Task: structure prediction
Amino acid sequence: MAKFEVTNISSTEDSFFDRQERIDWWEQDKLKNATVLVVGAGAIGNETLKNLALLGVGNILITDFDDISKSNLSRTVLFRKGDQGKRKAQTAAERIKDMALSDDFKVNYFEGDVVWELGTGVYRHVDIVLGCLDNIETRIAVNKQCYLAGTPWIDAGIYELGLRINFYKPPHAPCYQCSLSPNQWQAARERYSCDDFKKQVTSEGKIPTVQIASALVGALQVQEAVKFLCGQEVPIGKQIYYQGKTNDFDVFDMPDNPDCWAHQASYDEIISLNLDTDILLKDFLKEVSKAENSGEGATLDFRGDRTFVKTMSCRDCQKEIEFYRPSFRIFDYESHCEECRSEGENNTENQTPAPKQTIGQFNLEKLKVNDERLLNFTLKELGIPILHVVAVQDTEGKYKYYELTGDKKKLF
Result:
């Protein structure tokens, strides 16, 4: 047996991160300075957040709109019995704040619907997005925003003892949408009525799984994120797959759909404005109508990104119902007037969209004549998400894109 001699002993306990920094390609400063958006604070999100905090990632933003349920507690390392009913994002933020080892660690959280209330600008101000999700609709939304912002993201998924992760790097293909089947697209619409209103009651499918799968996928997801942040190559268009029941491990090539619109959309230029979503529409339009911006006559244009509903005909009696709300803030039962609802004459089986009056373009002079009331709405009330990139058209039909950078201080 070969003999060896210890010639020098030095302290290895001066740094919290000593062992990982011994990896030759590891760059702890890059992790410390990185900003990571974690979408979802459930089972996968808990494991992912725990790993990020212990590895010394310096800036984390957590998004989730849900409460902690009893069934979450067996699968979430950050939550305790007494947390039932508390908000997931806030509680997770508090726990990793206590767990983090760096004195200047920063964590913030956002409680809202990621699909509709988290703007493109949020994705522009992070280095990578980690998707810890359990539904297709939100994955589609995250994929879209990441490709618009040019920000990489890693999607993680679990089922029983199985798991998979995918790394997407805009503008490269494939993207998440490339391989979606018609049934998956249909599943993405499950929480909406034919009027594009939110269903009051939806049949929520619960995924059979255990904490073991969450721990494994969270570890692999953060491993790939760390490699990327430290400048290592992470293969694009691959899926890492593991089935725990049979211990099968594989890496698959993902299909590229050349006609997929998600990775073809982009902005030519984004202009930062020190404005936020609390600004009144009239003041926003005055600002973008300045000569140095889009000029006199500028129009805020939703470009099909969302729908603002002014009125709609009652499904039963055709009486006009006033909304003045974005469609994602309207519930399906509201498509029947209060009188018909009280009489129980609301036919929820009717799948034909009812006539409604919507608005997708907002011009200062036109609204003064046609609907001055809207000018005193905030951008948030119109349905524009926090730190969003909005499209503004000038009188010649040319578009400029403005980020509502004034919202940044609310999240970072």
Remarks:
- DSSP finds 14 helices and 16 strands in the chain.
